Amino acid sequence: MKICPKCGAQSPDSYSFCGQCAAPLPAQEVAPQVPAASVAPPAQGPGPLPVPAAPQAPPPAAAPAAPPLGSLGARVVAHLIDLVFLFLAFWLTGNVYGALFGGLTPSGFNLTGLPALVIIAVSSLVFLVYLIVFEALAGATPGKLLLGLRVRTVAGAPCQFSQAAVRNILRVVDAIGIYLVALIVALLTKKKQRVGDLAAHTIVAQERPGAAKQVGAVLFLLLSLGGTIFASLYVRHHPRVPLLTFGIANLRFADSDTAPPRASTEYKPEDDVRIFYEVPGYARDKDSYISVVARHQVTAPDGKPFFETKTIEVKQQAGEDAGPVKCNFHMSLPAWAPPGQYAINIQAEDQIAHKTQAATASFTVNAPPVETSATLVAKSIELANSRDGAALAPPVFTPGQSIWLRFRVLGLKANDQGQIHLTEDWGIIGPDGKPLFEQNDTELVNEQYVYPPPHVPVTDHVNTPSSVEPGEYKFHVVLHDKIGGADFTIDEPFTISKP
Q: What is the pLDDT of residue 114?
């Protein structure tokens, strides 16, 4: 047995520290020497020699007293005190992340998506290091020191670093169900050990620490609080990314909401153009409702509006941790889209805070120059035997075939509302100059446009009877611009040959 030089308690020879007060024990306890009994020289004379008395064996050593276990209630209160440090780590991490990468709000920081994952992971790791280091170096966290608790091995020795790491890493198991697993296991074990304690061979003992340690624990928590407040205020006043105020952010051209931004913002006629962006920093009413309206107006290279204004309205409840409003705008370019640079003008309005913000996204259309005309005219006139068939040169048909006439109409006039109105009279004139077929006042276009097209494609067709006589014919068309008051005549010759 070893005897503690500090408190005098006895501990087994295998202990390096006192089981009562944790003071270091000497390497080996030397058994006390029993003085040899002095033997008087035998007296002269007859008789038996005296027998010396046997030495008395030392009394059996008392078993070392096990340290008293800390109560579960004290352990819960101690952990709640330690959770103050977790909150401080979480708050500081969120402000630092928001200052570096964006996401600061007037009342805090954005906690959705990837930022939430990073902030929670970093603050949890900092808290884990806090628990391990304090228990390995001081035997207790500040919360345990204030409640008179100390982590020890089951043999009563101080907790080692590896044991502190194991018992705290396994909190991921103990914390299931808000520490319900830890509570059940501690109630079922003799030494009130949770899963982490069983794996690390540790217990939580009740020990009254010195006043200096308790004062130090309080000072540490106060310094952590002050440091967090100071650092958070500093990064919020010196952010690399400005405070998340109402505006338009993360504007990008992309092919879908999950696709990366396009490497080029150059498009061709008939392409789809899509933009995506976010509106952060909106206000809420007393019922936590938001009201954000975004309007989109596209202007052509000549500065005129190209499409109707598209409006997006978002009116819904949103909590303090709700992320920015996600918006997108989509349009399909017409085949006649003029080449040049276009602009998508965005105006976001917070109808609760009465704030507006604007942004512009520019893109380019790569196309041949658009042909225009100051007067009504038909161009690109061609005949074919099907709607999408190749133009025939020369245009020769046989009886019973379909005859298709395709052309583009330029020079149409629009009124102040952007309306154009085009009609036609058309038919087939035979070899004798008389109409073989005719149709009058056919409506081709009667629409209102934001940006009137520079030309209108027209297609007419007729099915020739099988009894038609061979000869030279004309596809006769008279175009009428009802807005501009102009007419244009087409007489496109073709031949019907014998089958």
A: 83
**Are the C-beta atoms of 480 and 421 separated by less than 8 Å?**
no
Q: Is residue 34 part of a domain?
A: no
Residue 163's Cβ-count burial label (10 Å; 0-12, 13-18, 19+) is buried
Q: Give the CATH number, domain containing residue 298.
A: 2.60.40.1930
Total of domains in the chain: 3
Q: Which tokens hold the place of 9?
A: 């308690």
pLDDT digits (tens, 9 = 90+) for 434-471: 999 899 999 999 999 999 999 999 999 999 999 999 99
H or E stretch covering 383? strand 377-384
Torsion of CA 110, 115, 118, 119, to 10 degrees: -10
Q: CA 330, CA 334: separation in Å to the nearest integer?
A: 13
Q: Give the type of residue at 355.
A: K
Strand duo 486-496 + 396-397: pairing? parallel
d(CA 94, CA 82): 19
pLDDT tens-digit series, residues 45-80: 555 555 555 556 555 554 455 678 999 999 999 999
48 belongs to a structural domain = no
Q: Tell me, yes or no, whether 327 and 387 share the same domain.
A: no
d(CA 279, CA 348) in angstroms, rounded, equals: 8
For the record, the structure tokens of 97 come out as: 């992340």
Per-residue pLDDT for 30 more than 50? no
Q: Return the number of other C-beta atoms located less than 10 Å from residue 151's C-beta.
A: 26
- Residues 476, 490 contacting (CB under 8 angstroms): yes
In this structure, the answer to whether residues 360 and 384 fall within a common structural domain is no
Task: Examine residue 15 and state whether it is found in any structural domain, yes or no.
Answer: no
SS (H, E, C) 150-187: EEEECCCCECCHHHHHHHHHCHHHHCHHHHHHHHHHHH
CA dihedral angle for residue 160, residue 165, residue 171, residue 172, rounded to 10 degrees: -160
- Confidence (pLDDT) at 29: 46
Q: Are 372 and 410 in contact (CB under 8 A)?
A: yes
Chain mean pLDDT for the chain: 88
Q: Which residues contact 236 (CB under 8 A, 6 or more apart)?
A: 95, 99, 104, 243
The pLDDT tens digits of the residues spanning 236-255 come to 877 665 556 788 999 999 99
Domain range for residue 410? 377-496
Query: Residue 287: left if φ>0, alpha if ψ -120 to 50, beta else—which one?
Result: alpha
Same domain assignment for residues 354 and 479: no
pTM (predicted TM-score): 0.51
The tokens 């089981």 sit on which residue?
19
Residue 372 has φ and ψ, to the nearest 5°, of -125, 165
More confident residue, 95 or 409: 409
Domain presence at residue 24: no
Burial of 403 (0-12, 13-18, 19+ CB in 10 A): buried
